[in-house]
Amino acid sequence: MTDPAFSVGIEEEYLRVDPDTRDLIGDAPAGMLPECERLLEDQVTPEFVPSQIEVGTRVCVTMGDARTDLTRLRQTVAQVAGDHGVAMIAASTQPFASAAAQKTTHKQR
After folding, report:
1. CATH superfamily name and code, 11-94
2. Residue ranges of the chain with pLDDT lower than 50?
3. CA 77 to CA 108: how far, in whole Å?
4. Which residue among 31, 35, 81, 101 sits deepest, i.e. has the most Cβ atoms within 10 Å of its Cβ?
5. How far is CA 15 from the centre of its chain?
6. Distance from the Cα of residue 87 to its chain's centroid
7. Which long-range contacts (CB under 8 A, 24 or more apart) does 74-82 make?
8. Strand order, beta sheet including 44-46
9. Tell me, what's the pLDDT at 91?
């Protein structure tokens, strides 16, 4: 009997913020998510609130593969965001945003 093959995948969520104030941007600029989807296909999705976006690596056999894929995802999302005048932060919550003011995305959960 052989040992099972192990694999790893990484998901990260980013928040869209104004590059000057760092305040959340509720709705993505038109075209931002479609551009990310065109470049990253099914490795990028909207998240629970419209200010969030999620990326996920492919199934990776080594940590080096995961690092390479995650780096590509981060760089692509950051570039697209910058092209649309917004910034992305990697945080579970934005420290001064009102939770009551957040809407949820229309996505099956």
Report:
1. Glutamine synthetase/guanido kinase, catalytic domain (3.30.590.10)
2. none
3. 23
4. 81
5. 7
6. 12
7. 74/12, 76/36, 76/39, 76/40, 77/14, 77/36, 77/40, 77/44, 77/53, 80/32, 80/35, 80/36, 80/39, 81/16, 81/32
8. 44-46, 52-56, 11-17, 87-89
9. 75
